[in-house]
Amino acid sequence: MSDHHDDFSFHNLTPERIADALADVGVDPQSGLLALNSYENRVYQFIADDNRRYVAKFYRPARWSDAQILEEHQFTQELLDEEVPAVAPLKLAGATLHHYEGYRFAVFPSVGGRAVEPGDLDQLERIGRQIGRLHAVAKQRQFATRPNVSYHEYVTEALATLSTSSLLPNNLHDAFFAIAEPLANHLKQIDLNAFTQQRLHGDCHLGNMLLRDEQLMFVDFDDARTGPAIQDLWMMLAGDDRAERTLQLDVLLEGYQEFCDFDSKETQLIEPLRSFRIIHYMAWLARRWGDSAFQRAFPWFAEQRYWEQQVLTLKEQFAALQEPPIQLQPQY
C-alpha cells in the first residue's frame, strides 16, 4: 500500500480512493461526493445506502497524531453524552478513527442547520449558555496529548515562518517586523499559565456553530486544545466600540455563568489572544500555500495590499494592548 503522509495537498485523495476507504468500514455512498467548505482537511457529504446523509472527514496528513485525534473524538462524545449539542464521529468497525492507504478519516452524521448570525443581545446570551454548558463538561477532565494555547506556537513559530516566507513582499519586510517584533515582545510578558487551563473548542466562532431545530450546535473541534476559558468567548465580541463590546461581554457571561463560573481576570487576555490569532493566521496561510486549495480560496494573501493592511492591523493591535482591559460589572 502506498503512503501519502507527505501528500500535503491531498492530491492523491481521489473520489475512487475516498469510496474505497468508506467501503473499507462498511459505508457505501450512493450519491456523489459533495465537497464541503473546509481547507485544513478534506470533508465530503454523501448519501449512503441507508438513504441517510453522512460526512466523511479526511485529516490533513501529519498534522495531528492518532492519539490527538482520538481525544477530539472523545471530547465530542462526552458532550453528546451530557446532552450538549455537538457533532461526534460514528463508531464503525469498532472505531471512530480509520486508516486507508496513508490517509486517516472519520465519518459523522450530517446534521445540517442554518448559519448562526451575530443577532442581538438575546442571541448572545443564548450563545453564552451553550459555551457555558460546553465548558462545564470540558472541565471534568484534561487533554493528555492535544496542545496548549501558547506563545511559542502562536507567535514565535508563526513569526519564524513569516520571516522566511516569499509571500511577504521584500519592500514591506522591514516595516512588518518593525511592528511585529515589539508586539511579540509585549505578548511574551503574558503568562497564560497563571490562568486556569481547561479543555477548549479552540476555534469557537459563529462559523463553527449551526442552528438546528432552534438549538445551537457546535461543529468542527479540529482545533480543540487546552487554554483559558476566554479563548472560547472573545471571538463572540463584535465591533470596535469599547462600550458596546463591554456590554456584549456582560451579556455573554450572563448566559455563560448559568452553567460555568468565570474568572474575571481573564478579560485581560482578550487583546493578547486576538494578537495571537492575527499572527498565527498569517503563518497558517503561508504554511499551507503549497496546497492549491488555499491559493484558490485566499488569492489576496499574495497581494501587496494585503500585507500593507496587515502592517496597519498590527499597529492597531499594539495600541489596543496598551489600553486597560475591559472591566466587567461587579457581579463578575
**Can you tell me the CATH topology of the largest domain?**
Transferase(Phosphotransferase), domain 1
Oligomer kind: single chain
Unreliable sequence segments: 1-6
| Count of extended strands | 10
Spatial separation of the terminal alpha carbons: 57 Å
Strand order of the largest sheet: 1-2-3-5-4
Q: How many domains would you count in the coordinates?
A: 2
Site (ATP): 38
GO molecular function: ATP binding; magnesium ion binding; protein serine kinase activity; protein serine/threonine kinase activity
Subunit structure: Monomer.
Family: Belongs to the SrkA/RdoA protein kinase family.
Textual characterization of the structure:
The chain has 332 residues and is an alpha+beta fold. The chain folds into two domains: 15-111, Phosphorylase Kinase, domain 1, CATH 3.30.200; 121-322, Transferase(Phosphotransferase) domain 1 (Transferase(Phosphotransferase), domain 1, Orthogonal Bundle). It has nine helices and ten strands. The protein has helices spanning 15-24, 66-81, 121-138, 151-163, 170-188, 242-256, 270-288, 292-297, 304-322, and strands at residues 34-35, 42-47, 53-58, 98-100, 103-109, 114-115, 198-200, 209-212, 215-218, 225-227. The chain has a five-stranded antiparallel beta sheet, with helices on one face. Strands 6-8-9 form a three-stranded antiparallel beta sheet, covered by helices on one side. A hairpin with a 5-residue loop joins β2 and β3. The longest helix is centred in the middle third of the chain and has 19 residues, at 170-188. The N and C termini lie far apart (57 Å). The model is unreliable at 1-6 (pLDDT under 50).
